[in-house]
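Deviations from the work plan: none for this task. Representative record:
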Amino acid sequence: MENCIFCKIIRQEAPADVVYETEELLAFKDISPKAPVHVLVVPKKHLTSLDDLSAEDLQLAGKLLLGIKEVAARLGVSGGYKVLTNCGRAAGQVVDHLHFHLLAGKQFDF
Ligand code: AMP
Ligand code: ZN
């Protein structure tokens, strides 16, 4: 996707503080962190949101979940983190490339 900021990060056309990468996934620090640990885990394949996921993405969906777990372990927050994805404007989605927020290091009221 030409103008998608996360696709640009994946293509290394935009900067990011990458914490984890596989053939299919990228994890990088959120530019505007809402917690001491705030990382975004994204598929390299452009999917707009969870609504865009289909049966052909079954393996990718599993790899995303395992990737989130792996990032949490690497950041030393296993057993104490929150995972969140916003789907659509009504839920607060701003960037239209599927991403999971991995948050840790504070008390959350949601
Ligand atoms: P959402 O509201 O779920 O779409 O969240 C989008 C998230 O992406 C926000 O937390 C932003 O701070 C974050 N974000 C937007 N642009 C960038 C960027 N260039 N690098 C890192 N994080 C970004
Ligand atoms: Zn994209």
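Helices lie at 5-10, 58-74.
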